[in-house]
Amino acid sequence: MRLISLPGVGSEPDGNWVGLSLPRRFICDLLAFARLVPSVPTQRTMQLADVIAARRRQDQRISWCAIFIKAYAIVAARRPELRRAYMPWIWPHLYEHPVNIASFSVEREYGGEEAVFFGQIRQPELLSLREIDAIIRRHKVAPLDEIPQFRRALLLSSLPLPIRRLAWWLGLRVDGAHRAHFFGTFGISVVASIGAAGLHLLSPLSTTVNYGALRWDGSLDVRLTYDHRVLDGANAARAMAELEEVLHGEILQELAADQPALSPDTDRRPGHRLSVAAPQFSVC
After folding, report:
1. 171-174 — which CB contacts under 8 Å span 24+ positions?
2. Can you give the pLDDT of all 284 residues of the chain as single tens digits?
3. CA of residue 155 relative to chain centroid, distance
4. CA triplet 101, 107, 111: central angle to 5 degrees?
5. DSSP assignment of 10-21, as one string?
6. Are the CB atoms for 40 and 53 separated by under 8 Å?
7. For residue 233, what is the DSSP state?
8. Nearest 5 degrees, angle CA 226-CA 117-CA 125?
């Protein structure tokens, strides 16, 4: 559809106007508020060969999304600054939520297009990795109208633009407890399963975790994008270091306990390590 005719362009074929779907409206609204956040990405290269090997020995592998949700939730439960949010109204202050609420993204089909939806897990550090993985898998396969967060996002996105933006403003900026309830206290969003990674995620949340693809030697680039009004660089760096410790500690122990018994011919030589070539990721 062409609204204005210009000299010299009459011979060009007309393109098509594509209306914004409800999920695309949701992303547009999210980014409208995310761009107001002075976010800074920080990266740490983690050596996770032992975690990879423990995961590979499982009959049904737990997704990396579940692993990182629980690991980061353990860190955030110990570090209250990771559960804080900048609140500008009525006067600028930081709100600290008493518990973790993880927000994770999943890709679903809606109206013939691939769309991003967001699910939540309350206090994932208290759940097993299997329980977290089951929640993520349900969000990926259950009918959209069975997931409360999906229904709420579609309903909100069906409203006129001024009403939507007012609802987002109220939810993100007025009451800290409502903000945590509707949006979570931290986020995780990854596309590592298709060999890519975001370098600087835009999010209205105070912290968001993402990671890239595993290398042959078991190393992995993990990124934490944080709101600089809430955290300083040293806080973020310490959180990343503790995240790696948790992955080698609590997470590795749980993975090791959740695997079949070794067969008699399994190589038990000291220092023997399983190959980590061609690891497979699960999308959040």
Report:
1. 172/33, 172/204, 173/87, 173/88, 173/89, 174/87, 174/89
2. 556 666 666 666 778 889 999 999 999 999 999 999 999 999 999 999 999 999 999 989 999 999 999 999 999 999 999 999 999 999 999 999 999 999 999 999 999 999 999 999 999 999 999 999 999 999 999 999 999 999 999 999 999 999 999 999 999 999 999 999 999 999 998 876 566 677 788 999 999 999 988 899 999 999 999 999 999 999 999 999 999 999 999 999 999 998 765 444 444 444 444 444 333 334 46
3. 22
4. 125
5. TTSPP----PPP
6. no
7. H
8. 55
Contact 180, 97 (CB under 8 A): yes
Contact assessment for residue 230 and residue 81, using Cβ atoms and an 8 Å cutoff: yes
16 beta partners = none
The gap between the terminal CA atoms of the chain, to the nearest Å, is 38
* Type of residue numbered 71: A
d(CA 30, CA 20) in angstroms, rounded, equals 14
Q: What are phi and psi of 21, to 5 degrees?
A: -70, 170
Q: What's the whole-model pTM score?
A: 0.87
The position carrying tokens 């990721």 is 281
82/238 Cα distance (integer angstroms): 11
Q: Are strands 101-110 and 186-188 parallel, antiparallel or unpaired?
A: parallel
Is the Cβ–Cβ distance between 97 and 83 less than 8 Å?
Answer: yes
Task: For tokens 């898998």, name the residue.
Answer: 137
- Helix ranges (H only) for the chain are 22-34, 49-56, 64-78, 129-141, 148-157, 161-173, 176-183, 233-246, 252-257
- The type of residue at 97 is H
